[in-house]
Amino acid sequence: LLQPKLRLADGHTMPQLGFGVYKLANQATMNTAIAAANRSGYHLFDTAQAYGNEAILGTAFKELAIPRTELFITTKVAEVNQGYDNTLRSVERSLKLLQTDYLDLLLVHWPIHSQFFETWRAFERLKAEKIVRSIGVSNYHQTHLDYLATRANEQPVVNQIENHPYLSQEPLLAYDRKQQIVSQAWSPLGRGVVLQDPVLAKIASQHQRSVAQIILRWHIQRGLAIIPKSQNPQRISENAAIFDFKLDADEMTAIARLNRRQRTGADPEVVYEIE
Ligand code: NAD
């Protein structure tokens, strides 16, 4: 099945569905997961310097002989690597670990107030040098985006944020849209917490689909990019089988009503500072 792509403001395209590799920590587990994802039609793989698994991800791509042109690789600059020189050095290291000479998408992992403009200047340089095709941010709120909007030469084309039925963040999504930024949902399944919800269970049984598929389909119909994670080949394939059914307007509304501003991760309003 052909996977949909989203057009980014810089002219590149990005698969709407991707695979997150957070916590995949050894080579055998990584290989099994990436092989399953590759078979199921995922092209986008989302890692981060902070996950400590760029090397095993790079090795998995090589061992499975997946052509680079079929891959869309995202990594993120860790908090400890922010700043102009640190960013450049750390991206060089990420490229080595991932065994590639370019990245499809590079994200600032978290907005560290004292550092993020210098980090962003390094991102602009990496893009100009074509080491990175697209540049974006993660966990940015409107205030952080506004800062870049008024000062930066290049604008982020992706904002990767926590998003699931218990944290739908509609105002931030609207702001991203206004700025021509694609919103990409991390923890799209709420790390499992949302899967027990009775409203979702009812919709799932009506469609004879799993709750995970209903949630992922809801994201797709809202135009978000998603990067669900699983180690289980059957679930990896299930999470990609979401392009052959539709939720109706009432179902979309019922899911939207589940929002309770419940985070699984940290709140970006907390100012991150390096010690
Ligand atoms: P997720 O919402 O994708 O949930 C993953 C968990 O849900 C799995 O561990 C599994 O237990 C369960 N699951 C997955 N598929 C299932 C299915 N079909 N049926 C039942 N249970 C299922 O949460 P996540 O791993 O936190 O997020 C996904 C990715 O987002 C990460 O791997 C990472 O790449 C990215 N991420 C980014 C940030 C950031 O700050 N930018 C933060 C967290 C995660």
UniProtKB/TrEMBL annotation:
Gene3D superfamilies: NADP-dependent oxidoreductase domain. InterPro entries: AKR (IPR020471), Aldo/ket_reductase_CS (IPR018170), NAD(P)_OxRdtase_dom_sf (IPR036812), NADP_OxRdtase_dom (IPR023210). SUPFAM superfamilies: NAD(P)-linked oxidoreductase. Transmembrane segments: none annotated. Pfam families: Aldo_ket_red (PF00248). The keyword NADP applies. Keywords: NADP, Oxidoreductase. Residues 17-259 form the NADP-dependent oxidoreductase domain. Belongs to the aldo/keto reductase family. This is Aldo/keto reductase. It comes from Loigolactobacillus zhaoyuanensis.
